[in-house]
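Issue: copy button drops trailing tokens. Both records pasted manually instead:
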Amino acid sequence: MALVESRTRTPRRTQRTHSRRASLVVLCAGTLMTILDGNIVTVAMPAIQSDLGFSASGLAWVVNAYLIPFGGLLLLVGRLGDLIGRKRMFTAGLAVFTAASVLCGVATGQGVLVAARALQGVGGAMTSAVVLGMLVALFPEPREQARAIAVFSAVGAAGGALGTFLGGALTEALNWHWIFLINLPIGVVAWLAAIRVLEPDRGAGLGRGADYPGAALVTGALMLTVYVIVGAGDRDLAPTLLLAALALTLFVAFTLRQARAARPLLRLRLFGSRVLSGANAVQILMIATMYGFQFIGALYLQRVLGYGELLTGTAFLPAPIAIGVLMLGLSARTVGRFGAYRVLLAGLVLIVAGMALLSRAPVDGSYVTDVLPPLLLLATGFAAAMPALTGLAMSGAREEDAGLASGLFNTTQVVGGSLGLAVLSVLAASRTEGLLADGAGSVAATAEGYQLAFRVATGIALGALAVAAVVLRGRRD
């Protein structure tokens, strides 16, 4: 009898393992699609500008129109995923994102493309906000969870760098429309697989925690914050400060609302977790560094070293390869042996070193000696830091708040990326314009502008290291 029961349990356990692995593949595929799209546009921007006649300031809205709803809605849809079911939110997000990608791909005018990019941002938020919460539920055992988070982080990190390569390859081989149309077959397959593979979850129900006034306040505050950050370089100081003050007012009103609401959208107890709050603070600074590196680094290769679109994308390929190999092969075991805190600090040290080296990239630089070594340091550091940081952040939330914590973690990722892009690009442009006004050559002035951006990024990375060392100190697992 015992033998029969053992034989019965073993196939069930094996079936359960295969089901969870299939679910992990589906979640990673959906995440990869949204992350690729966030980076794939960068290299194709000149082609989009030439084809649709965007002005220099108008072209920025091809990126901004995606970031604003994506960053603004993550917290809200993360909470709604807890209430209506995370599978429903994830699959609905895939459908919206895929449909919006087709609209982007067939766009022949500026207005249609910008509007479709905004709709993509909505779908991307719906898909991304609940993924970490679903992973934590699928893999509750610490070792398995660490491995799953390592796989998820590898897909996300490598996807960002891979997007730069694909953007250049598709734009040069076909045209910029295909950077969006490629999402159609990927999205359809991922949606069908999600419907079939992911286990349904009922959620708590909209009647619990559906604080609609609070949702309006926080969504407005987050969207306005992202808008202020990404558009800071195109406005005077006074309007920027006014909009920032308005965003802060909305955040204060939201906080007061959550403290008094019977069914709050965001339980303020989340921020009572030193680990969760500290991990999100570290992520803002770390992602600001890495996102700024990807954007400014691509421009350095094109405008200083004279690389074309495809060659620029190819130059970034060592990063996703290194990230994928290290995260999948070593990350979970390294965290298990040394603890997430130590691995995070080691990764941040490597990121600081990589940015410091990159800040020396000269006008007559070489890819092999001036770009590839810091690129590999940054990739190695990020491969170590990101899974450790993700695990720390999610460990600070209760199970019933997993979707909300996932949305919060993704929100700080978008805010960090937007902040890094805005600050570093404005500093680089200002430095370059000042040197040009003094009579410097175009390429030399551009190179010095990028060097300044890289030095500031090094300081931001040092800030991330300091916050992690102080706030997360004592957290070893």
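Record 2 (pasted manually too):
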Amino acid sequence: MKRIATGAALAAGALAATALAFAPTASAAVTPTSATITASCGLFGGGTATLTAVQTSNTTATIELTSSAITTPLALSANSITSTLTMKNSTGSDRVFSGTVNPAMAAGAPVDIGPLPGTVAVGDSLDFYKGSLKMVVFGITVTCTSSAAQSPGPFVFTTYP
């Protein structure tokens, strides 16, 4: 009897492992997960930057901006930039991501802002074009804008897995 129970348990385990192997994988709730923009940022210069979005629930997400073309004119300590990223939403109200999240950066270093938390809704379609990134550094506000839509397209938020 013990052998039959052990055999049944092994068979059930093998069946479960096979089912997991063929199960569909979970997909990201936001697509695309990264997009390229060309931004003009005053004192920080301008050029190509990458936005990376992560949806953390049906109502929250983070966005990070990194760029080797946009640089800091001064050395900055970690979490010293107050950033407000406003994304245009083609399905409703603009969405705002804000915080003071940045690594320490040497003068002339590439800019890395975020991940900045914000509120989203299922169906939101967010684009940096006609939005902005405002960074307050030593009391000076630097604003980044873009003259073209992000590529490959807006961040579209779906039901979180």
